[in-house]
């Protein structure tokens, strides 16, 4: 059987004793029991974002990890929980052992955003940042109790619904410590065009979640440096 794995931070960039950890969760598909291999487009896209964010977050004392799911699908009903949910719970347990007592922000794209809000009740998690998250009307919000949630979505997304993301934020507000929606403008789903916009939102939102959670790190100022990954 395939197994999930954690891609650790670059030792040459990551702080030795991080003040916080970001766990990145990639997208997937509604169904699929195929193993997530190194050629997975969803994993590659999130990995590409990590390449940009990791050195910037490291300057704020934050270590960045990436979860590779065991299989590519959400697979509702195929097991006690959708397939990536136990993978994410496993990853959080591993991070708690690697970085005991260190707060975690979940950063998920598409299915990764949906997975993030399911596992946010882990004691180490202080908040969730979602990028074009795949959210449905019946998705629960209870795991977000006391957490900070920032979700961003583009208006040209034909794969997941910005309207559903807005609605989810409204349902989460009475439960979460804070919940916000950012309209990312005329962006699609796959984070290939205007990568600078996606990267900027992800970076700023992670730092904002940490600030709202009262997590100390070396520099409260947001990194406004140039982004060389733009596809414009």
TrEMBL record:
<keyword id="KW-0378">Hydrolase</keyword>
<protein>
    <submittedName>
        <fullName>Alpha/beta hydrolase family protein</fullName>
    </submittedName>
</protein>
<dbReference type="Pfam" id="PF12697">
    <property type="entry name" value="Abhydrolase_6"/>
</dbReference>
<dbReference type="InterPro" id="IPR029058">
    <property type="entry name" value="AB_hydrolase_fold"/>
</dbReference>
<dbReference type="InterPro" id="IPR000073">
    <property type="entry name" value="AB_hydrolase_1"/>
</dbReference>
<dbReference type="GO" id="GO:0016787">
    <property type="term" value="F:hydrolase activity"/>
</dbReference>
<feature type="domain" description="AB hydrolase-1">
    <location>
        <begin position="22"/>
        <end position="177"/>
    </location>
</feature>
């Amino acid at each position: 059987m395939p197994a999930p794995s954690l891609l650790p931070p670059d030792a040459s960039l990551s702080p030795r004793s991080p003040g916080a950890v970001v766990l990145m969760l990639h997208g997937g598909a509604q169904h699929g029991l195929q193993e997530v291999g190194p050629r997975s487009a969803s994993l590659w896209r999130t990995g590409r974002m990590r390449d940009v964010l990791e050195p910037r977050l490291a300057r704020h004392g934050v270590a960045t990890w990436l979860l590779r799911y065991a299989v590519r699908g959400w697979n509702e009903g195929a097991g006690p929980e959708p397939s990536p949910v136990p993978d994410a719970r496993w990853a959080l347990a591993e991070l708690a052992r690697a970085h005991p007592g260190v707060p975690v922000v979940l950063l998920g794209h598409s299915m990764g955003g949906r997975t993030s809000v399911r596992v946010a009740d882990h004691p180490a998690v202080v908040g969730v940042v979602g990028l074009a998250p795949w959210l449905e009307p019946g998705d629960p919000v209870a795991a977000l109790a006391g957490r900070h949630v920032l979700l961003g979505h583009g208006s040209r997304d034909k794969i997941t619904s910005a309207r559903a993301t807005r609605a989810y934020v409204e349902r989460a507000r009475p439960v979460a410590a804070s919940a916000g929606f950012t309209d990312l403008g005329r962006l699609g789903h796959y984070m290939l065009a205007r990568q600078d916009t996606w990267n900027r939102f992800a970076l700023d939102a992670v730092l904002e979640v940490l600030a709202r959670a009262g997590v100390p790190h070396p520099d409260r100022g947001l990194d406004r440096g140039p982004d060389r990954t733009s596809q414009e």
